[in-house]
């Protein structure tokens, strides 16, 4: 071993001398330092043999990769890969030195500890090599794409083409990235401590996995599918093949009625130790799994296989199939259902019950008192009656032990409950229900009386379980609710998690199938507390809001149940709850189908329409604009039936405004034009007509289908809020249409003085934005930033989405002012409020993504700008957004123009023309109504393209 160390150190030192790159020299010097520490201090050098070999590999790789390459001409991808490798190797070296200073090498420690630490360093070095390899291949792949003709030649090289194909997904994903949680690798759950009678099955399944077979473990609840999967994860052959790439994705904490494709993917990513960023949740998971062979267990798959949401049923199976197709990835699926992803070649195994010997070991391990009884044969018969069902045996043993039953009492309970089943030929038991019944018949449960079962029924009814902190408020008539829950927990019928008292999924199914629904008194109490909380909840983050946030799935369950049974009494609570979700926890909701499924009558049309209105507002917050438009159209139809034309107009305006948000100005104008010819128009009040005119003129302003002098004049004299806003927008329209900027500034200053009341905060915002635009057009960028800051301060705390929106514009202006450091600080170090809205609002993401692209473009960081523009375009395609798509295409065209690729620039600019036609915006007025989005004058490719000047004259 000493000789191997000497040779390796000498070889690395020789390479260090000859490689021209200082960065590579630094990496090699650090590697040599690690080996010299091992050589001089370690006694058990043989344990370091694998590390020494990997260090030798680093030397060989760097010698080949950096031959004849100095730091000055080092390719960017290679420089980045070397930097990452240098950082990781330095980290390992620091750990070695730190251990040495602490006296670790001098202490008499167990061999196991030494080897564990050595194995950890070996994994770190292996990770460094994998990362270097990945970075280098990505760089090669990008270079291949850029050099004409070289791609075909690369395909002819053995091995390289395949590895590049594996990386293609990683290279192509500008809108989605992989954020690895770096603190600790994700450890699979431990091997079950009580695991008997499965050795042969484990060996068979392990062989299938090693031979790259996907496995589906099928069986009823409690058969031990999860335990079997956990045991496989810890088999030596599995550890050898997959090392630390063994993952266990648990779905047992989700409810099939609420699971969505997004929650499925989020759980998957969390188990891998990564975060999902971007619009496509599958891409970062695929990218991560492409990097090395992995074994992934999808546990309790019936949760998503039996999902209620149609989108989950449509999207999850194809996603599983795509993951299964990744080279080196093996899936193990555990499920009660056979509705497994059809496009995966599963090796299906039905999990058998335990054999008698194993069943006895499980039972007596949990309930040792029975081992000393004279009723061993009777116990064997009891286990047979349970069909040797693992969970049932375990629950039964726990029940007997906790109640301190003798074997005779246990057998008597069994015989009294199941005497008919003792007759031969009666068939297989429903083991879980039998075991549940025994638990319910235990003395401690019986002592609770009816309240015990009622409480269990309530806990099973609520998807989150019973909030332990609110139990007394939710069930005031159950004065001993805490004691009851303690007894249920002792009997293993419930468990506590995150301040909630929950039941396991098999028990929940049993309770819901076998016990009556919660009685009317308890349901009324729960409804009263939750609905009172909903009604008292406001936009402020107070105690009521906290309950909405903590118990939102439970409240949703109660509302959905009541909509199906007492809809007329539930509509108001439903509407307010949707508003509370919008304020405090924007998320998709299962109430959408519940509302639509209610069969309305003439007395409930408006109540249902009101629910739909708030549902639509929630979906707008979530940027699910297509769904929101369908919801508002449904509400509009109901309001029209009742003759409530004012709210019909409000629904039309909502739909039109959704078109505006997507940059679809033709549809925006058409909806409002058409509404003026509808039967509702003549019934509208003058303020509502003014509002419709306001939005219609806004559409005409954006499409330049009317001169500025004619815009917003019909609603100028209105006493309503829209009268003041119309005056402001009239002068902003003049600015957009090329009017006298001095005159515009003067009128906006005067109008701002009228915006003093809190009720006209939106008018004040409009005036300030107009003044900021005037300052921007005059080149007074500091003044523009100051005005934007006033808007930010005006909305902080109350309308946080407005505050963060204008913070992004402030950063863009800072970039155009030349202060790129400040611009990046403002936009990259986003406050928590922006992160909150970005997670839920694709519109906020697109706004910020485009802002970052503009900042990087202005700073001359074209690669970064290009990445952000591409990400924005991909997000726009998903959301159907046209304006930011056109702006980002312009950005890409200007980057191509700067790089001298005029053909590519022309292609981008031609695509902009197509998007402008779809938007209904003249090409020359692309930015006229969105002045902060305009690019600096030095980026002139678009202008030259429109004018047909060189270099586009010949290309066009």
From TrEMBL:
Gene3D superfamilies xref list: Adaptor protein Cbl, N-terminal domain, P-loop containing nucleotide triphosphate hydrolases, Tetratricopeptide repeat domain
Coiled-coil regions listed in the entry: none
Entry superkingdom: Eukaryota
InterPro entries: Adaptor_Cbl_N_dom_sf, MLKL-like_MCAfunc, nSTAND1, P-loop_NTPase, TPR-like_helical_dom_sf
GO biological process: cell surface receptor signaling pathway
A Pfam family reported for this protein in Swiss-Prot or TrEMBL: nSTAND1
CDD domains reported in the protein's UniProt record: MLKL_NTD
Start and end residues of each Novel STAND NTPase domain: 193-238
Record protein name field: Novel STAND NTPase 1 domain-containing protein
Species this chain originates from: Suillus plorans
């Amino acid at each position: 071993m000493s000789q191997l160390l000497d040779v390796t150190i000498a070889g690395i030192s020789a390479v260090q001398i000859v490689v021209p790159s200082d960065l590579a020299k630094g990496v090699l010097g650090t590697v040599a330092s690690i080996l010299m520490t091992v050589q001089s201090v370690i006694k058990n050098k043989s344990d370091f043999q694998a590390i020494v070999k990997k260090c030798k590999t680093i030397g060989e790789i760097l010698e080949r990769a950096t031959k004849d390459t100095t730091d000055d001409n080092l390719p960017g991808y290679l420089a980045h890969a070397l930097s990452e490798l240098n950082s990781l190797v330095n980290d390992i070296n620091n750990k070695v030195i730190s251990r040495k200073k602490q006296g670790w090498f001098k202490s008499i420690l167990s061999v196991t500890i030494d080897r564990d630490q050595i194995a950890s360093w070996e994994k770190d070095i292996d990770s460094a090599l994998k990362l270097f390899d990945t970075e280098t291949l990505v760089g090669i792949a990008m270079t291949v794409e850029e050099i004409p003709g070289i791609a075909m030649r690369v395909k002819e090289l053995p091995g390289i083409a395949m590895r590049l194909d594996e990386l293609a997904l990683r290279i192509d994903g500008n809108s989605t990235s992989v954020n690895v949680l770096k603190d600790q690798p994700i450890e699979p759950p431990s091997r079950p401590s009580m695991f008997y009678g499965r050795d042969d099955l484990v060996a068979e399944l392990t062989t299938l996995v090693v031979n790259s077979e996907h496995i589906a473990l099928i069986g009823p609840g409690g058969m031990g599918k999860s335990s079997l999967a956990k045991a496989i994860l810890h088999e030596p052959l599995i550890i050898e093949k997959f090392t630390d790439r063994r993952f266990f994705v648990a779905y047992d904490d989700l409810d099939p009625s609420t699971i969505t494709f997004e929650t499925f993917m989020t759980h998957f990513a969390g188990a891998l130790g990564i975060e999902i960023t971007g619009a496509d949740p599958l891409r970062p998971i695929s990218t991560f799994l492409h990097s090395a062979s992995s074994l992934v267990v999808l546990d309790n798959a019936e949760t998503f296989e039996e999902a209620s949401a149609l989108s989950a049923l449509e999207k999850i199976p194809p996603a599983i199939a795509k993951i299964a197709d990744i080279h080196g990835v093996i899936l193990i699926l555990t499920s009660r259902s056979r509705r497994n992803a059809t496009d995966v070649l599963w090796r299906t195994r039905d999990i058998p019950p335990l054999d008698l010997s194993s069943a006895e070991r499980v039972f007596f391990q949990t309930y040792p008192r029975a081992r000393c009884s004279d009723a061993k044969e009777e116990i064997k018969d009891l286990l047979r009656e349970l069909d040797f069902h693992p969970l049932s045996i375990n629950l039964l043993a726990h029940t007997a032990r906790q109640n301190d039953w003798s074997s005779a009492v246990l057998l008597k309970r069994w015989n009294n409950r199941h005497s008919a089943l003792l007759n031969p030929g009666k068939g297989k038991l429903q083991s879980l229900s039998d075991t549940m019944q025994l638990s319910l018949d235990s003395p401690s449960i019986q002592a609770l009386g009816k309240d015990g079962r009622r409480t269990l029924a309530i806990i099973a009814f609520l998807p989150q379980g019973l909030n332990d902190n609110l139990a007394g408020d939710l069930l005031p008539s159950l004065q001993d609710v805490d004691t009851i829950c303690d007894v249920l927990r002792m009997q293993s019928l419930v468990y506590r998690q995150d301040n909630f008292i929950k039941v396991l999924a098999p028990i929940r199914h049993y309770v819901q199938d076998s016990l009556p629904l919660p009685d009317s008194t308890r349901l009324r109490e729960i409804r009263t507390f939750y609905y009172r909380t909903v009604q008292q909840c406001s936009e402020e983050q107070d105690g009521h809001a906290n309950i909405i946030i903590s118990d939102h799935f439970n409240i949703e369950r109660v509302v959905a149940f009541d909509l199906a049974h007492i809809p007329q009494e539930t509509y108001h609570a439903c509407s307010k709850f949707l508003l509370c979700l919008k304020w405090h926890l924007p998320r998709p909701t299962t109430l959408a189908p519940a509302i639509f499924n209610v069969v309305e009558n003439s007395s409930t049309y408006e109540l249902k329409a009101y629910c739909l209105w708030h549902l639509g507002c929630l979906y707008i917050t979530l940027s699910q604009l297509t769904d929101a438009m369908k919801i508002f159209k449904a509400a509009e139809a109901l309001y029209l039936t009742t003759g409530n034309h004012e709210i019909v107009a409000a629904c039309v305006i909502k739909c039109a405004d959704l078109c505006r948000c997507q940059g679809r100005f033709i549809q925006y104008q058409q909806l409002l034009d058409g509404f003026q010819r509808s039967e509702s128009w003549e019934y509208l009040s003058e303020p509502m007509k003014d509002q419709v005119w306001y939005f219609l003129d806004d559409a005409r302003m954006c499409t330049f289908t009317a001169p500025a002098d004619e815009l917003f004049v019909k609603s100028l004299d209105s006493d309503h809020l829209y009268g003041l806003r119309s005056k402001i927008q009239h002068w902003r329209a003049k600015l957009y249409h090329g009017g006298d900027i001095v005159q515009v500034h003067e009128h906006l200053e005067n109008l701002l003085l009228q915006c003093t009341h809190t009720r006209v905060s939106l008018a004040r915002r409009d005036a300030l934005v107009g003044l900021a635009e005037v300052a921007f057009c005059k080149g007074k960028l500091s003044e523009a930033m100051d005005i934007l800051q006033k808007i930010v301060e005006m909305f902080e705390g109350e309308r946080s989405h407005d505050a963060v929106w204008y913070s992004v514009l402030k950063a863009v202006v800072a970039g155009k002012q030349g202060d790129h450091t400040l611009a990046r600080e403002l936009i990259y170090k986003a406050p928590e409020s922006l992160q909150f809205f970005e997670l839920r609002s694709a519109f906020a993401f697109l706004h910020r993504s485009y802002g970052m692209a503009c900042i990087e473009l202005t700073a001359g960081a074209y690669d970064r700008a290009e990445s952000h523009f591409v990400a924005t375009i991909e997000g726009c395609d998903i959301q159907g957004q046209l304006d930011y798509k056109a702006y980002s295409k312009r950005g890409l065209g200007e980057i191509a123009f700067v790089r001298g690729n005029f053909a590519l620039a022309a292609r981008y600019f031609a695509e902009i023309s197509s998007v402008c036609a779809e938007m209904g915006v003249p090409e020359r007025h692309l930015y006229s109504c969105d002045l902060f989005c305009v690019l600096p004058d030095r980026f002139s490719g678009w202008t030259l393209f429109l004018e047909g000047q060189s270099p586009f004259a010949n290309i066009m």
